[in-house]
Structure formats: C-alpha cells, structure tokens
Write a structure and sequence with these properties.
The complex is a heterodimer of chains A (216) and B (193). Chain A is α+β, with helices and mostly antiparallel strands and 216 residues long. Chain A has three domains: 75 residues, no CATH class; 69 residues, no CATH class; 61 residues, no CATH class. Chain A contains seven helices and five strands, in the order αααβββββαααα. Chain A starts with a helix and ends with a helix. Chain B has 193 residues and is an alpha/beta fold. Chain B folds into two domains: 157 residues, Vaccinia Virus protein VP39 (Rossmann fold, 3-Layer(aba) Sandwich), CATH 3.40.50.150; 29 residues, no CATH class. Helices cover 37% and strands 25% of the residues of chain B. A seven-stranded mixed β-sheet of chain B has the order 3-2-1-4-5-7-6, sandwiched between helices. The longest helix of chain B has 13 residues. Chain B is globular. The chains are: A alpha+beta (216), B alpha/beta (193). At the A-B interface, strand 1, strand 2, strand 5, helix 6 and helix 7 of A face helix 3, strand 3 and helix 6 of B. Strand 5 of chain A pairs parallel with strand 3 of chain B, so a sheet runs across the interface.
C-alpha cells in the first residue's frame, strides 16, 4: 500500500516538473509551482492515511486550503481576507485576486493593499465568486453567474434603474412588464429604490449635514 | 461619541476592524477612517449608487490616513464577514431602513468579537408622525410618507421597549445595552457583545 502511494506521489511530482518546464516562467515561479505541487502530494498522502484510520479530514483540508492560499498569493498576487467571507457561507473566507492579468502588481497606495483595479473574490470553498473594484466597492450581494460575466448590471440595466425612480409609482409595474427587469425584481420598494438612485445619493449627504446643523 | 464608545473594543485585538453598516455616502465611514484610530474601516451599504458616491467622496479626502478603507455592497441580513471578526460596528440612522431588523441585528451580533461594540442611531415612529403632520399642516399630500405608510418601506419603532426586545431577540444581553432618546424621537443604541 505504502509503496503504491509513494509511486503515485512520485509520478505526480514528475508531471509537475514537466509542466513547469513547458510553461516559460522565471526560476522563482518554477520553484513555487513545484513547492505547491509537493505540498499537495504531501497532504494527499496525509489524507489517505487519515482515511485509513477513520479520522475525519476536515482539519487537514482546512490546513491544506490555507497552505494552498498562501502559496497562490505568492504566485498569483491573491490575498485571503481576514474579515470578508462568502455571504452564503460565512465560514468560508474570500480570496481576493486580480480579475484577468496575472502580471498586475500591488499598488502601495493610500489605504494599503490593492488599488485601482478590477478584482474577483472567490470563496475558499470555491462555491461562489464575487466581483469588485479596489477603487470602487466589492459587490458581495450576489455571486457572479455565468450569464453576467461581462459587466452585467453596470450597463443598460443600471441606466434603466436610475431612470425608474422618476416614473410615478403607479405606472412602474406597467413599465416593468414592458421590458424591465425580468428577474423578479420588478416590485417597487419605495425606500430601497429611492436610496439606490444616483441622484438621491448625490443629494443625500447635504440633507444629513443640514439635519445635523439644524439639530445643533 | 462613537469613537469614545468603540475605544475599549478596538484595543482588544492586534488589528482593529470597524464596520460602518448602511454607510450611504460614507459620512461616518470617512470620519472613522481619517481618525486613524483603526487598522481597517469597512463601509457597507445595499445601494450601488450610494457606494459609488461614497467612493467619490473618499477619493476627494485630502488628509493623509493609514487606515485600510474598503467599501462592500451587502445585505445586512446576510453579512459577508467571518464570525467574531469585527471589533465595533456603527449603523447611523439605518435600522429603520432594514427590511428585517432582527435578522440584521442577529448578523451584527454574530460578526462582532466577544466584547465588541454596536452603536446604532434611529428614530421612533413619533419622528415619522412629526413629518406627516408637518406636511399635513403645509396642506400638501406627502408622497414619501404616504408610500412609507402603505408599503412599510420604513420600519416603525413604536417605543424603546420594542427596540430592546429586537436587540435581545438578536442575541444581545439586556444588561449590556443602553437605549437613550435624544430630543423627541432620536434614539441612540449602545450595546456590547
């Protein structure tokens, strides 16, 4: 059994080496990639042993996910957020990384961390992906689905929603039927729609300040 | 007042995290961040446009600060944060806008560290009645308050006891919370996990 396991691990190690040679990378990256693969092999072996003993592998899996995230952060520039987690599974931290280019580097700007680019936030359990901008906000309301990979609600829909607040409420259901949301979000929710209108956002804080000034 | 109240809880961990829930345009988010007393401030809201406006205003801050400042779009009833990861949470004039107040408060209780602090301000229903009567006196019909009344857009907190009951239902202990009424109907809630 042990012999078979060792042979298996060894063969995967070889494959990793070959892959590393085929992909043109710097020597550091090669080293990291190899480390990542070796780490996985070691963990696989541990998991196999634990299974034999009938011991649960949850802790091992968590350790493995953590080790993997650490190595990935070195290679891909991802960060495991200590606070933010998946809204559908708050035990699963979010791993924040660049959206497309692996060549993007950290900006050391104000506030620290990543600056000025589009990022994806993937739950550690790999179940859900969210998106956001480091110079905007992280949208952790709904996970990204296959259908809206290309910007989705930042397009026409948002213009439509912005205009909708100016339409008298009794007419809104009619407009929705005529080509509105189509996602079941057509119900008019007065305060939510009011607060989600850009014009109101612009004017809101002035009201706050005036309110405070009036209240002393 | 908020910063003084948060002081003990932010000293409890090596890195302090403060959340501004329902931050809207980020008036308090910016004040918390520029105070430079916390390692990280997270401004949260449901509204995309409020967050965009908050970011615009954050970008125009001229003073220097080292606090990490993030903005997150979320639903307060499903806060995307780890359990016991936040030192203190502020929700200014926000609770009456949440569709499910107890669910929101339960989530806030969950994400706070033991000893973490919650500071919330809201209004009792008398405040909204005041708005209504002012408009009635002016002779006009109010679009906003009529809609609010019909469709329950605002949550109406009839009394301090109703709020206390909701906080206790969410997990806060009665002896660790205080609710003060300022003026006629402005409510300040201070609670500790």
């Amino acid at each position: 059994m042990m012999y078979a396991l060792l042979t298996f691990s060894f063969s995967i190690g070889i494959v990793a080496q070959i892959n590393a040679f085929l992909i043109p990378t710097s020597s550091t990256q090669f080293q990291l990639k190899f480390q990542l693969q070796s780490q996985e092999n070691a963990n696989n072996a541990n998991n196999a042993n634990n299974n034999n003993n009938g011991v649960t592998t949850t802790i091992q899996e968590m350790k493995r996910a953590k080790a993997k995230a650490e190595l990935q952060s070195l290679i891909l520039g991802t960060v495991t957020d200590p606070v933010l987690a998946c809204p559908l599974n708050p035990n699963s931290s979010l791993v924040i990384g660049p959206k497309k280019s692996l060549l993007s580097s950290y900006g050391g700007g104000r506030g620290g961390g990543l600056t000025g680019r589009e990022v994806v936030l993937e739950s550690m359990d790999r179940c859900h992906v969210y998106r956001g901008r480091t110079d905007g906000f992280y949208d952790l309301l709904n996970p990204v689905t296959d259908g809206d990979e290309n910007g989705g609600d930042f397009g026409l829909q948002s213009v439509w929603n912005a205009a909708r607040v100016f339409v008298p409420p009794p007419l809104r259901p009619m407009l929705n039927r005529g080509g509105g949301d189509g996602d079941g979000d057509g119900d008019y929710v007065p305060m939510r729609d009011l607060f989600t209108s850009p014009a109101v956002s612009f004017a809101y804080e002035r009201g706050w300040r005036q309110g405070f000034a009036a209240a002393g | 007042m908020v910063r003084d109240f948060f002081e003990d809880s932010v000293a409890m961990t090596e890195k302090s995290v403060v959340v501004d829930m329902s931050c809207a345009t980020g008036l308090f988010t910016r004040r918390l961040a520029t105070s430079d007393k916390y390692d990280r401030v997270i401004g949260c809201d449901y509204s995309e446009s409020m967050l965009s406006e908050a970011r615009r205003r954050i970008n125009s801050i001229e003073s220097e600060y080292d606090t990490q400042l993030d903005l997150v779009r979320l639903d307060v009833a499903k806060i995307p944060m780890r359990t016991s990861s936040v030192n203190a949470l502020h929700a200014g004039a926000a609770m009456h806008c949440w569709p499910d107040v107890v669910a929101g408060l339960s989530e806030i209780y969950r994400v706070l560290i033991p000893g973490g602090k919650y500071f919330g301000s809201t209004f009792l229903s008398a405040y909204f009645r005041g708005l209504q009567s002012a408009e009635d006196l002016a002779g006009g019909t109010s679009n906003v308050s009529d809609l609010a009344k019909d469709s329950q857009a605002f949550q109406y907190f009839e009394s301090v006891d109703v709020l206390k009951e909701m906080l206790v239902q969410a997990g806060f202990q009665e002896e660790k919370l205080t609710i003060d009424v300022l003026g006629s109907a402005c409510v300040i809630i201070k609670a500790e996990k």
